[in-house]
Amino acid sequence: MSEFTVDNSLVRLGAPYSQACLPTSVPAPQWIAFNTELAAQLALPKHYWQTDTGLALFSGNNLPDWVQSAAHAYAGHQFGHFVPQLGDGRALLLAEVLDETGQRFDIQLKGAGRTPFSRRGDGRAPLGPVLREYLVSEAMHALGVPTTRALAAVLTGDWLQRDTAEPGAIITRVAKSHIRIGSFQYIAEHGDIEQLKTFADYVINRHYPHCAASNTPYLALLESVVEAQANLIAKWMSLGFIHGVMNTDNMSIAGETIDYGPCAFMDSFNPAQVFSFIDKQGRYAWGNQPRIGSWNLARLTECLLPLVNPEQELAVAEATAVLQKFSTLNETAFLQLMAAKIGLQQATAADEVLIRDYLHLMTENKADFTLAFRLLSQSINDINAGAAQLFGDKQAWQSWAERWQLRLAEQAINATEVQQQMDSTNPAVIARNHQIANAIEQATAQGDLTLFNRLHKALATPFTLAKANADLGLAPNAEQCIANTFCGT
Fold it and tell me: Which residues are identified as catalytic?
């Protein structure tokens, strides 16, 4: 194992970017899960790997000297309404670690107790949301989606009063950073241009060092974040994923998926699908995610304007031109991802119609999103096989499938290769709502992690599904469908 290297750069910036804070000790920590693959990547010393020493660290009970724990400060628009101070109310940055390639990662406890930003909260996390974030974040990583990751999860030994009494837990998550659009909003709200410049320079150096060589580094920073978010949201949508709470304080500057609260993968396809119980207006529905991504980036743009150009009109014009690239970048990325899902090597403008028509067919027939693409490879040689079973309107299915087969025939690639490519693109298993709910229920009510562990293992290889786990790849029946998800605060 290579050397474990720590460098706590955000903490060195000091106020107002973060505040030093210690976790609150817990009475009786126990292991839930530990990610050895990620620990090895970080070169985390093995005496922390599922040991009592590691349990003391990841519960916050005993911090080694390389830890400089701090809560990060940020603001944010929550469902469109600006809150000038939010911050890490139940999360603590432990340290920044450099992996063997020199890539910097935050190690952060979530659910470790009150911080200066907790407001009226207790800073704790119930077991259910910890299990959900562990499963979904690791599933997203296996699917190739940029995301925070789960390094460890522990029970705290105490109980939290939410709607009912629930076991407390802490998740240790790893990210390129936990800096958000809301981080810039927090500093911009204070109106100190020097602090804003210091922070922007820090973010450039940490995440987008190529921008430093630009004649317009802050415009280049905006362009880099726009591109990262455009690609991230396209990837989400190609998997039927709904983030659920795309507030500006939940949108990472690094282009990673962050803050898995009321997130969910769709079952039956519906572009207006919402799961979050608090999203009554459908602001963060599947089909709205690009629009909200652009809206959030406009808020970042507002923060950066004083750095882009001292002349406000010129700053607005220059930054707006960059921001307007989002839609094209997102639509192009989404088209290519969706083309690959139906077996096309390179999408054309005509393919956009073919893809849109398939999504419409799925909507009209309430077809399961994941299965409609996973089973499609079986329909290449037999129009009545594979995905055909998902469509009650057989005539509409056959009409579309014939067009699709003709399009595939134009490619200089045989059917077997197309099938292999599709099966390596379309997952056989995703973190389905009903399976996660069952795993949480078993763990919470019975202390049984069997289903959690089964899911975790199966989701690590989402494009292959062992026969013994065939049930994990099934869509829910009517009684199993989950209508709402919750943030878990």
Answer: 249
The b-or-e profile of 139-149 (16+ CB within 10 A means b, else e) is: bbbbbebbbbb
Q: Cα(1)–Cα(115) distance, rounded to whole angstroms? A: 34
Domain range spanning residue 74? 5-78+86-175
- Contact (Cβ atoms closer than 8 angstroms) between residue 73 and residue 17: yes
In this prediction, the residues of the chain whose per-residue pLDDT falls under 70 are 1-2, 486-489
Residue 145 has which token pair?
């989606």
Bridge partners (DSSP) of residue 252 are: 180
d(CA 340, CA 328): 18
Please name the residues in contact with 395: beta carbons below 8 A apart, sequence gap of 6 or more: none
Predicted local distance difference test score (pLDDT) of residue 2: 64
Among 175, 208, 238, the domain-final residue is 175
Residue 91, sorted as left (phi over 0), alpha (psi -120 to 50) or beta, turns out to be beta
Q: Tell whether 213 is covered by a domain.
A: no
Domain presence at residue 189: no
Strands (DSSP E) along 188-347, which ranges?
Answer: 241-242, 264-265
Residue 110 Cα distances to 25, 52, 163, 420, angstroms:
13, 19, 20, 39
Q: Which two tokens stand for residue 286?
A: 């599947």
Binning the chain into helix, strand and coil, the percentages to the nearest 5 are 50, 15, 35
pTM tops 0.90: yes
SS3 281: coil
